[in-house]
Design a protein that fits this description.
The chain folds into two domains: about 160 residues, 3-Layer(aba) Sandwich (D-Maltodextrin-Binding Protein, domain 2), CATH 3.40.190; about 100 residues, D-Maltodextrin-Binding Protein, domain 2 (3-Layer(aba) Sandwich). Helix content is about 45%, strand content about 20%. The protein has eleven helices and eleven strands. The strands form two sheets. It has a six-stranded mixed β-sheet with strand order 2-1-3-10-4-11, sandwiched between helices. Helix 2 links the parallel strand 1 and strand 2.
Amino acid sequence: MRRRTLAGLVPALLALPRLANAQPAYPNRPIRYIVPVATGGGSDMVGRTVCERWSRLLGQNLVVENQGGGGGVIASQNAARSMPDGYTLMQGYVATHGTSPAIRKLPYDPVKDFTPVGMIGTTPNVLVVNPQVPATTVAELIAWLKKNPGRFSYGSSGAGSLTHLAMELLKMQSGVFITHIPYRGIAPAFVDLISGQTQVMMPGLAAALPHIRSGRVRPIAVTGASRHPALNSAPTFAASGLDGFDAQQWYGVVGPAGMPAPIVTRLNETLNTVLKGADLRDKLSAEAVEPMPMTQDQFALYMREDLARWSRLALERKIQLDN
């Protein structure tokens, strides 16, 4: 009898370590979702729109936490230093993981310090000019600028921004010379473009659409692989003769380095399900964002290639900003 009792205890004792190490299903509590900008604006809207639908699918709240300041540096540092347990995520974008690391030294590594989770989507930049500029195509604009080297200027939302680097990419590929005027944000840059103080700019499409529709600026071309449905009249740069020209605002989800693969897979698969919803596409169209589901590996490659593109440009154009 004693021998049978001991024999029955052996399987139960062997199972104890497995029970002790068993983890509850992920997620079992709210997830912090850091948006690296202040409340309001396009990036914040994208994050809240995605999180609202993602929460329902995961069965847990994604609590949006806005951490503006330093061009995304503060938020990126906080996200990178968090526990890699899947309960802190951040909405990375072209500034935090592309343009800023390319042109300045940062207190985080955009590749080594993060786990790519998935892409959300992209929105193109659009080349626009003051209506007095005698050009309606990229070729005409390039020809006009080459005839008037150094006489005209373009505005940007700030040194090192995508609106700055996109125009430097155009200058490098076309061989034109036009002076850069940085502003504190895209709104004052538009004021001077519309008044004729500057002549050219390459803002994000969402910011440009109201001014295009009112006729205060003229669209010339959009970045991306195809025409955008919100501005179908404007051709792509490739169709305009500049192959390989690419400069897009993108939004994605990252976490701290070292996140467990099963958690990343669950997050990636559920995020992609959210992105395929028709209601999400309609909502994001207000910011001209086109959902772009990707696997984790595809998104990791996209981020590395984007960083490499802007790093090469910064090196060739000698663009390096101090902290």
